[in-house]
Amino acid sequence: MKRRSTGSSYRAESREDEGLGVPGSRAPPNTAEAIRRRTVAALRAMGIEPRRNWGQNFLVDPAVPQKEAALVDLPPGSSIVEIGGGLGDLTRALLERGFVPLKIIEIDSRLAAFLETNFHERVAVILGDALRVPLPKAEAYVGNLPFSTSAPIIERLLEEGIEHGVFLVQKELAERLTSPPGRRSYGPLTVITRVHGEFVIAGKVPSGSFYPPPKVEGSLVVFRRSPLDPQPRDPELLKELLAGLFTWRRKTLTHAVPKILPKFIEGDPDDILRVSEWPAAWRSMRAEEISPEEYVRLANVIHAKHQAYMEK
Q1: Are 284 and 252 in contact (CB under 8 A)?
Q2: Cβ–Cβ < 8 Å for 286, 250
Q3: Residue 242: band (very low, low, confident or very high) from pLDDT cuts 50, 70, 90
Q4: Which among 136, 241, 246, 310 is most buried, taking Cβ atoms within 10 Å?
Q5: pTM to 2 decimals?
Q6: DSSP count for the chain of H helices, then E strands
Q7: Which CATH entry fits the domain spanning 6-225: 3.30.565.10, 3.90.45.10, 3.40.190.10, 3.40.50.150?
Q8: Average of pLDDT values for 34-53?
Q9: Residue 175 CB coordination number (10 Å)
C-alpha cells in the first residue's frame, strides 16, 4: 500500500523543481548559499527540524554528491543501495549515472515520502534504521552516513559482505578506517576493516558544506572488498582480543595478553599462551604497532592453543 505523508504535498516546491534537476526550470544560482536557503525552505515545508541523533546534516555543496556518484566504480544498471536519501541530492546524481532502480534506506518517514514523490518508480524507499532493517543485496552501498552512527553502520555492512562502497563520514572516522599501525588513529576498527577489505580517502568535505553545519569536517571514503588470507578462525575472539589489547595499547603483548585473556576464554593463560614460543617480535610489540595481518595470526594462534587446551 502506498504511504501517505506530508512530503507529497511539497512536490511543486521541491528543490528539484527549483532548478536542481528539472530541464527547463528557472534555476536560481546554483551556489551553496542558494541551495542552503532552498534546503531550509524544503525542510520547513515538511515540518522537519534537523535531528542531531539522526545525523540530519544536509549537503548544500552541489559538487559533493556529484563526486560521490562518480566514485561508484560500476556500470549503469548496477544494483545500488543508498543509505540516508535526505532531500535527494545524491539520489539524483546516482540516477543520472544510470543506477536505476535505486534502493534507498531512509529513517525519516517525511523524507521517505518526499523521495518517493519526487523520484517515483525510479526509487524504492525502505523506511527504517540502517542499523536494524534487513539489508538488500547490492553491488554497492553509497551514502552520506550519520556521523554519530557511521562506525556501527560500516561494521554491519562489512559483516554483511558488501563488495564496494562510497561513503561520506566524519573526517576522524575516515582516518581510523585507513590508518597504518603506529598512529593514534589506528585501532580495533582499522583492523576489523582490513580483515574484510580496504578503504581509501577520496576527498575532504568542510563543515560549511552542510546545513546545519556540524562541528567537525567530513571525508569521502571508498571501500573495496579484498579479504585478508588467512581469515580469523573465530571473528568474535579477534574482536575481544582487539578490544582488550587497545585498552592497554602502550603495554607489550607479553604483559597485555595474559591480563585480558581470562575475560573471554577459559583456561590457564600461561598454559594456553606459552609466550616463550611466540616470535620475538610479538613479545616486544605494543597493540598500536601490530599490523592487521599479525593480529589475525595472533588470534588464530590463541584460538588453536585454546582448542588444544580444552581437548586435553
Answers
A1: yes
A2: yes
A3: very high
A4: 241
A5: 0.85
A6: 12, 9
A7: 3.40.50.150
A8: 87
A9: 18
